[in-house]
Amino acid sequence: MNLDYIVREPEHITSETTILFMFHGYGSNEQDLFTFRETLPADWIIVSFRAPKTTEFEGYSWYDIDFNNPERFVDVQQATESLNSILESILKIINHYGITHGKTHLCGFSQGGILCYALALKYPEMFHLVACLSSYPEEKLLNDIVKDKKKLEKLRFFISHGTDDAIIPLDWGRKAADLLYDLGCYFTFREYMSGHGVNQKNYMDLMDFFSK
């Protein structure tokens, strides 16, 4: 399935151009994280995807969520289908621009961040910088992740979470630190005085991460 997306292209694109893929959260859309483009490097291609499923109030999701049942918080089949569509779309877009030597980065919020963990840890050779905001690593989507430290060593994670997040508990977010530490990945984990969102300090730290 080809995903809908919006894109900001730099003036010049070469085989070494950096590309950043963005994934919004449940009930949002492709415009959400795309606002970050104003302070991201001008020479990057920035692609923001729209999730394939519709939700109430004209939003979109990567998979259905059962908020009343923690065991069914993730529809694994739908999430897996979305991951496959994302991977297919990423490869097509990279091929379209002829990027053979450029870096590929990921940035996801909430449900989108959950998918970023799975993408990066399943296909670490494809990605470099990975930002997971207000999310957590979902064990049900991490069955076949790469555990070879040599293959994981070029990944760099930026993890952020609000201390008052009422949607995805901080304890869930903290699982990322344990997982990434055990895998030998490089990561920064930061907590902010906020709810389920990105406050100004979080935003500034994120931009600093992507500027390196």
Which helices and strands appear, and what pairs or packs with what?
Blueprint: E1 5-8, E2 19-23, H1 31-34, E3 45-49, E4 53-54, E5 60-61, H2 76-97, E6 104-109, H3 111-122, E7 129-133, H4 149-152, E8 156-162, H5 170-183, E9 186-192, H6 200-210
Shape: globular
Helicity range of the residues? 25-40%
* Count of DSSP strands: 9
Total number of helices: 6
Write down the secondary-structure element order. Answer: EEHEEEHEHEHEHEH
From the alpha carbons, calculate the radius of gyration and give it in angstroms.
16 Å
Uncertain spans: none
β content, as a range?
15-25%
Task: Write structural notes for this entry.
It is a single chain. The mean pLDDT is 96. The protein is built from 6 helices and 9 strands; from the N terminus they run ββαβββαβαβαβαβα. A hairpin with a 5-residue loop joins β4 and β5 (60-61). The chain has a 7-stranded mixed beta sheet with strand order 1-3-2-6-7-8-9, with helices on both faces. It has helices spanning 31-34, 76-97, 111-122, 149-152, 170-183, 200-210, and strands spanning 5-8, 19-23, 45-49, 53-54, 60-61, 104-109, 129-133, 156-162, 186-192. It is of the alpha/beta class and 212 residues long. The longest helix has 22 residues, at 76-97. The radius of gyration is 16 Å and the shape is globular. Helix content is 32%, strand content 20%.
Question: Can you give me a brief rundown of this structure?
Answer:
This protein is α/β, with parallel strands linked by helices and 212 residues long. The protein has six helices and nine strands.
